[in-house]
């Protein structure tokens, strides 16, 4: 095994083999086997790890999906390998592992036990410095049935289209699958509350724009309620563990068509109750992306009508609540454009009002309002009461409304929108700082998926200024996102940021101070518990 001052087994093997070949050039059998083995390793690496220069979410999705068929034989060593690799060159204090939940509670329980068991067997360089460990279960967003293996070859049947939905409502098929996963997590916590010491959070990942935020609220509520009961149980039976509720992190603000859409989706996670004080947002590039650069890069964007309408309604709601500075001309434009789009989408040329559209959007993000309408089953639906509820009902169940809402329209970034974007960024930064919600920066991932051009252009340097000023006080942590897909580890991510800071002209001492602040923010916002370093706790979870 690898040890301090000793190379990895693979490196030592290659060195010995090359040394042998240097003295035994006539051993053709060994030579052929060794070089074929190296070819397989290199081809596998190229197959799994995304190449630099392949920017965009589609490339990441392709590479990430390739991992699943190869995981079977490695299931028993995944977490042990993660602990070993992420500890290289670092004093690792905490590790959060992420995977998708299974549909049956016994599988969820066994996943948690696997992490506890492998963490228990981990031997850190300094025995008393065992890292904290935690498991984050993330729901995976999909926009079409064809993205799932059992539906491939059937065509792109959108989850959003109520005509293609199993229960006649938008996203009901996707929701039903994730509800089974949420219930499996809840059942695990109910039957084995001790697992909450290691199962520390839930997340939603993959294509951010594939599934709207309102669909997630009922799922997260199921899991949060179960975790609160498990925490109360452990507070009575195992108070020394110091176990609290599950925490939440949401991927938002990286995958968007328009900058306003990225900001809206970040705030929707708070509007719907997904995020609470002390939680985290993954990526969040829209929060500090340079507005002038955005306007220059994307002066005209095509966006589906209904997403454009949601952006405008969110903007109007912020003006109504006094969250953002408002200009009369921008307010009137946003209201008129929202009303025009709403009348086109809902096929109502005259009777619709902007207030009804605003109220319908508010109800859509209220899980109790969805429950009153019988979501996700059309056949169990209750008759909607009021204009806003009727609009929500049509949004959920009317194929014609869906089809008109999907028509792309051209959106021009005007001077008024640039000012609105700057105001919206400021509002959201102040809100996240007040709620102590941390932004998870993932340099390697953001560089490619966000197509930043260089790590030195990362928005975190605007969010946490290099001059030491706190601006609005938003915390930023450094993370690895998907270590296999990006061929990265935590040490690499810190190194990328350090190099970028030096390239920006920041002195070495100041660069290290900036990184130390990010490291401290990561420790403050971690979901793991000190109890998970204790062998007796891990044994109790792993049994």
How would you summarize this macromolecular structure in one to three sentences?
The chain has helices spanning 9-23, 28-48, 57-65, 78-86, 105-120, 172-191, 217-237, 259-271, 291-297, 305-321, 328-346, 354-364, 367-372, 387-397, 399-405, 415-435, 443-449, 460-463, 490-503, 508-524, 535-542; strands spanning 94-99, 132-141, 199-206, 247-252, 280-283, 300-304, 408-412, 438-441, 476-478. It has 543 residues and is of the alpha/beta class.
Description:
With 543 residues, this protein is of the alpha/beta class. The protein contains 21 helices and nine strands. Strands 1-2-3-4-5-8-9 form a seven-stranded parallel β-sheet. The two termini are 26 Å apart.
List keywords for this structure.
single chain; 543 residues; alpha/beta; 7-stranded parallel sheet; two-stranded antiparallel sheet; 21 helices; 50% helix
Topology summary:
Blueprint: H1 9-23, H2 28-48, H3 57-65, H4 78-86, E1 94-99, H5 105-120, E2 132-141, H6 172-191, E3 199-206, H7 217-237, E4 247-252, H8 259-271, E5 280-283, H9 291-297, E6 300-304, H10 305-321, H11 328-346, H12 354-364, H13 367-372, H14 387-397, H15 399-405, E7 408-412, H16 415-435, E8 438-441, H17 443-449, H18 460-463, E9 476-478, H19 490-503, H20 508-524, H21 535-542
Parallel strand pairs: 1-2, 2-3, 3-4, 4-5, 5-8, 8-9
Antiparallel strand pairs: 6-7
Helix pairs in contact: 5-6, 5-21, 6-7, 8-16, 10-11, 10-12, 12-14, 19-20
């Amino acid at each position: 095994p690898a040890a301090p001052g000793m190379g990895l087994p693979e490196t030592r093997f290659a060195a010995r083999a090359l040394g042998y070949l240097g003295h035994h050039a006539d051993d053709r059998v060994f030579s052929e086997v060794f070089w074929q083995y190296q070819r397989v390793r290199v081809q596998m690496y190229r197959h799994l790890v995304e190449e630099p220069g392949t920017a965009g979410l589609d490339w990441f999705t392709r590479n990430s999906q390739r991992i699943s068929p190869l995981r079977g034989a490695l299931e028993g060593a995944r977490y042990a390998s993660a602990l070993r690799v992420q500890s290289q060159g670092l004093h690792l204090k905490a590790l959060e592992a992420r995977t998708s939940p299974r549909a049956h509670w016994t599988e969820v329980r066994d996943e948690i036990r696997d992490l506890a068991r492998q963490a228990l067997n981990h031997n850190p360089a300094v025995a008393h410095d065992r890292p904290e460990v935690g498991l984050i279960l993330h729901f995976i967003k999909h926009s079409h049935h064809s993205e799932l293996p059992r539906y491939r070859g059937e065509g792109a049947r959108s989850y959003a289209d109520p005509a293609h939905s199993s229960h006649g409502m938008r996203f009901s098929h996707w929701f039903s699958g994730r509800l089974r996963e949420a219930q499996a997590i809840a059942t695990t916590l109910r039957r084995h509350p001790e697992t909450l010491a290691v199962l520390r959070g839930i997340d939603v990942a993959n294509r951010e724009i594939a599934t709207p935020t309102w669909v997630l609220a009922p799922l997260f509520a199921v899991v949060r309620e179960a975790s609160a009961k498990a925490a109360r149980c452990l507070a009575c039976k195992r108070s020394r563990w110091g176990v609290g509720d599950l925490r939440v992190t949401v991927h938002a603000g990286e995958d968007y068509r328009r900058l306003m859409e990225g900001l809206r989706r970040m705030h929707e996670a708070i509007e719907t109750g997904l995020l609470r004080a002390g939680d985290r947002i993954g990526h969040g590039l829209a929060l500090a992306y340079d507005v002038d650069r955005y306007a220059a890069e994307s002066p005209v964007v095509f966006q589906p009508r209904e997403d454009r309408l949601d952006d405008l309604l969110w903007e109007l709601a912020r003006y109504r609540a006094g969250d953002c500075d408002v200009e009369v001309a921008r307010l009137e434009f946003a209201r008129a454009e929202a009303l025009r789009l709403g009348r086109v989408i809902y096929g109502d040329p005259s009777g619709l009002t902007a207030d009804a559209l605003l109220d319908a959007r508010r109800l859509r993000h209220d899980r109790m309002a969805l429950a009153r309408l019988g979501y996700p089953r059309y056949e169990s639906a209750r008759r909607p009461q009021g204009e806003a509820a009727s609009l929500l009902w049509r949004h959920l169940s009317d194929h014609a409304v869906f089809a008109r809402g999907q028509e792309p329209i051209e959106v021009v970034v005007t001077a008024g929108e640039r000012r609105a974007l700057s105001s919206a960024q400021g509002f959201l930064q102040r809100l996240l700082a007040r709620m102590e919600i941390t932004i998870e920066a993932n340099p390697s991932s953001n560089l490619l998926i966000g197509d930043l051009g260089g790590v030195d252009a990362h928005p975190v340097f605007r969010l946490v200024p290099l001059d030491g000023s706190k601006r609005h006080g938003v915390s930023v942590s450094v993370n690895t996102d998907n270590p296999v897909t990006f061929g990265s580890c935590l040490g690499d991510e810190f190194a990328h940021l350090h190099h970028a800071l030096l390239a920006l002209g920041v002195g070495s001492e100041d660069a290290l101070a900036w990184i130390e602040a990010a490291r401290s923010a990561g420790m403050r916002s971690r979901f793991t518990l000190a109890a998970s370093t204790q062998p007796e706790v891990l044994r109790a979870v792993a049994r």
